[in-house]
């Protein structure tokens, strides 16, 4: 505290609260199932949430990015209850054992091993973290070894998304930035209130570089970025994104990359699966390379992205094999799928599409 310098209460001065789980009753009403799900015992300061099957048991788990306290990883036990394994799994703290100011979060296969990894944004002077899924219930902090450790940023990250922006078959990262204090330069002269958007391009296998300077004028414009959502807004096969701002209009960013071939999938569940197919998993083989993605209903920060699954295939001209694993456990397969189009896959009817390929 310094005389004449306005500031606000720090998150450290208040007690956190537990997460809440509400069951959709299907009649326009919800029921609180926090207690029966065994989610009442943890208290956090949640800002980011990612829903994905992190351990491959076909049940959706929850990663919670907390502000200033340990992150949570709620592992779905498959019986309506969850176990908190953030510390044991390696996503609770930074690699040096410190809690950080978790803001936004997303999940995708960042290194081609078909396992969902986690990326988390933080406030200025902290690293945005990449937690790599080891496939055994544990994660490794891979921030430094992937080149993301060079971005110990003066920025404060909020919304973020993995996406294949150039249809290369690799997952890049876009981060919306903007500080929380309009007078931050009084405390930290190098930090700014409005901050540019960050584009982290995956180059080669498993490494990233900051390509913001080459990505267009929009990445040079200072914003008060908060939410960030992705989707192909103009149906041209390239993923666009929208950023919401504090005290400002949304920013719509259209992708003008000279990208490779692509396939977009709309999934519709039936029977025992939910209608939106949240939790469904698709694996494709194209040009000798496997890719895998899950339908999720939660990621980024205060945002909802298009649930369609988008795969870039580079120079490959078809998908040789496509497997859909539905939330019900049912698996359906397509072969020799042509590219550069959007397909709607309905559970139980996938095989009927084979005649058009």
Number of domains: 2
Strand order of the largest sheet: 3-4-5-6
Question: Spans with pLDDT under 50 lasting ≥5 residues?
Answer: none
Please report the first level of CATH classification, the CATH class of the largest domain. Answer: Mainly Beta
Largest pleated sheet: 4 strands, antiparallel
CATH superfamily of the largest domain: YVTN repeat-like/Quinoprotein amine dehydrogenase
| Cα distance spanning the termini | 67 Å
Task: Sketch the topology as an H/E string, one letter per element.
Answer: EEEEEEHEEEEEEEEEEEEEEEEEE
Report on this structure.
By secondary structure, the chain is mainly beta. The chain has two domains: 243 residues, YVTN repeat-like/Quinoprotein amine dehydrogenase (Methylamine Dehydrogenase, Chain H), CATH 2.130.10; 96 residues, Immunoglobulin-like. It contains one helix and 24 strands. A four-stranded antiparallel β-sheet has the order 3-4-5-6. The chain has a four-stranded antiparallel β-sheet with strand order 7-8-9-10, with no helix packed on it. 43% of the residues are buried. The mean pLDDT is 93.
What's the SSE blueprint?
Elements: E1 22-24, E2 30-32, E3 46-52, E4 61-66, E5 72-76, E6 82-84, H1 86-89, E7 105-108, E8 117-120, E9 129-133, E10 139-141, E11 157-163, E12 172-177, E13 198-202, E14 208-210, E15 225-231, E16 240-245, E17 248-253, E18 261-268, E19 281-286, E20 289-294, E21 309-314, E22 318-325, E23 331-338, E24 341-346
Parallel strand pairs: 18-24
Antiparallel strand pairs: 1-2, 3-4, 4-5, 5-6, 7-8, 8-9, 9-10, 11-12, 12-13, 13-14, 15-16, 16-17, 18-21, 19-20, 19-22, 22-23
């Amino acid at each position: 505290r310094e005389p004449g310098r306005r500031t606000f209460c720090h998150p450290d001065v208040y007690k956190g609260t537990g997460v809440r789980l509400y069951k959709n009753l299907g009649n326009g009403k919800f029921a609180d199932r926090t207690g029966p799900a065994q989610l009442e015992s943890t208290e956090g300061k949640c800002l980011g949430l990612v829903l994905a099957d992190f351990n491959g048991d076909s049940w959706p788990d929850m990663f919670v990015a907390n502000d200033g306290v340990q992150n949570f990883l709620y592992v779905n036990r498959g019986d309506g209850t969850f176990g908190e394994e953030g510390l044991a799994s390696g996503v609770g703290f930074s690699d040096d054992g410190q809690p950080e100011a978790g803001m936004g979060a997303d999940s995708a296969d960042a290194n081609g091993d078909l396992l969902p990894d986690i990326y988390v944004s933080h406030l200025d002077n902290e690293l945005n973290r990449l937690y790599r899924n080891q496939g055994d219930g544990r994660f490794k902090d891979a921030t430094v070894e992937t080149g993301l450790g060079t971005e110990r940023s003066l920025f404060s990250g909020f919304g973020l998304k993995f996406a294949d922006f150039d249809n290369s078959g690799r997952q890049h990262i876009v981060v919306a930035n903007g500080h929380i204090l309009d007078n931050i330069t009084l405390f930290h002269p190098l930090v700014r209130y409005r901050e540019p958007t960050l584009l982290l391009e995956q180059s080669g296998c498993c490494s990233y570089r900051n390509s913001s300077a080459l990505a267009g004028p929009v990445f040079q414009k200072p914003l008060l970025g908060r939410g960030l959502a992705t989707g192909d807004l103009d149906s041209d096969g390239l993923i666009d994104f929208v950023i919401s701002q504090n005290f400002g209009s949304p920013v719509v960013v259209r992708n003008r990359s000279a990208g490779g071939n692509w396939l977009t999938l709309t999934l519709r569940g039936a029977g025992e699966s939910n209608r939106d197919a949240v939790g469904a998993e698709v694996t494709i083989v194209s040009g000798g390379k496997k890719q895998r993605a899950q339908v999720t209903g939660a990621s980024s920060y205060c945002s909802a992205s298009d649930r369609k699954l988008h795969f870039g295939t580079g120079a490959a001209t078809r998908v040789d094999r496509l497997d859909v694993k539905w939330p019900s456990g049912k698996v359906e397969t397509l072969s020799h799928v042509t590219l550069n189009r959007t397909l709607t896959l309905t559970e139980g009817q996938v095989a009927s599409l084979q005649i058009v390929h």
